[in-house]
Each structure stands twice: as structure tokens, then as C-alpha cells.
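Look at a sample.

——
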Amino acid sequence: MNRIAPQNISAAPVQSIDRVLDIIELLSAAPEGLSIRELSQMTGLHSSTVHRLLHCLVNRSYARKEMYTNKYCLTLRFLEIGGRLSGSFDLVAIAKDRLNALSNYVGEVVHLVQRDGPYVTYLYKVEPGTMLMSMGSRVGSCNPLYCTGVGKCILAFLPEHNVDDIWNASDIRAITPNTITDLNVLKQSLAVIRETGYATDNEENEVGVYCIACPIFNYTGDPVAAVSVSTRASRVTPEFKKDTIERLLAVTADISLQLGYNGKRKGE
């Protein structure tokens, strides 16, 4: 575990809060608990300071001292607070303004989807009035993960055994001539997506439609949702693709941050 460098903050109350948060983060990564000495070494704080901060956490029921090991652990008080907080988050409410702005900038259809087993469910869709073609997607509809850009960018960041399970639970068929129907080919595509951070759907789910998609991660580092920009395949140019990818990556990173994602995916 990495040592946390003490912060040089002149305002004592703010410094104390910063130190308490350091201790909370360290304890959250050590379910077996940590001693005052261990916390002192990791934070660079004097043991008496660590003891004082821990005493405050214990008094407020955020931490407890194990009787037999004399180590400190966090309590379920954090789970209680997290449960109340997560109930107040609405993915559409968080993403809506960002997606509207993205659609306005690129002048194309933007989708927000959430993973639902081997499918993605469409939660929100922005369709510019200038669009000359309609797309089959609609809010509330579902599509398989394996044949959509939004689905593939979620699959790419799941453990391989989950990918196998989803593939086996899916009705694999060629929806269009470009649909991937071979698991090994799909896994090769997912490896590229992990490297680049985005997925494409080159007429794999709907003839004539090209999509670029990026995943959204939650506070546990799981890919739970995705955003895509969809357009006519004939409109895609290298310049359009490059600009759209940059915008998508920024938007999804911002939404992930709002969901508590700290930049570390599960398993890293």
C-alpha cells in the first residue's frame, strides 16, 4: 500500500479533515484493519495525531477498534450513508445536460444506455431536428451487448468469464452482414477497445448506421452504462471520428466522476 504524503495546508481545520479522509481511504482498503503504527507509517503522521483522529471516528461510529488485534476498521455507517446517497443519484439527471450539449456540438443522435444483463437498455436519446434519417432506437428499448457499440464498450471492461457468460446467454445471430458472430473475433475487438477507450459499431446492428461509444464507470469501477454518437455511415470521416471520440471520452469521464469513479477499474 502506498504511503500518503502529508499535505502542507496552513489552515488547521482543513488539514485535519484532509488527514481524516486519508485515514478513511486507507482503512477502506484494509478490511482486516490497521493499527495506529501502520496508519502512522502510511500517512507520515505522528502516532498521537493518528490516535486523536481515530478517536473522533470511533466516537461518531465511523470506525471501531478490534478487541483482540487492537486494529481499527471502518463500520457499516459508511454503507448506510452510501445507500442514502446512491438512492439520490439519477443517471439520466446527471447526464442529460451533458448529452444535450454533445448532440448539439456534433449535430448527431446521442444515446445513453445502461447495462441490463446481456442487454443494454436505452435510457435517454437526443435527436437533432436536422437529422435526415430516423434510427430504430427508442427510450426503453433493448439491444444485445455483443452487436452494439455501447454494448461492446461495456463488455470490453468486464472480466473475461463475464463476457463468456453473456455470450452464452445471448441469441447470437447476424443482424446485418457486419455483425460479429464469432466469440474469438469479438474478444479481439474488445482488446482493442480496452486499449483505445472507445468502441465502434460499423453497421453491425443497423444497416447504414455508424456509432462511436464510450463506457461509464461507477464508484466501484464497474462499466455500468455507455454513451454513443450515432450517424449515417456515409457521413463518417477521419476528422469527424477523431473529434467525436475526444468529445465522448471527455463527457463519459465527467459522468463517471459524478458517479464516484476514481479512475481505477475493478481488478486494477
Q: What stands out?
A: Confidence is low (pLDDT under 50) at residues 1-11.
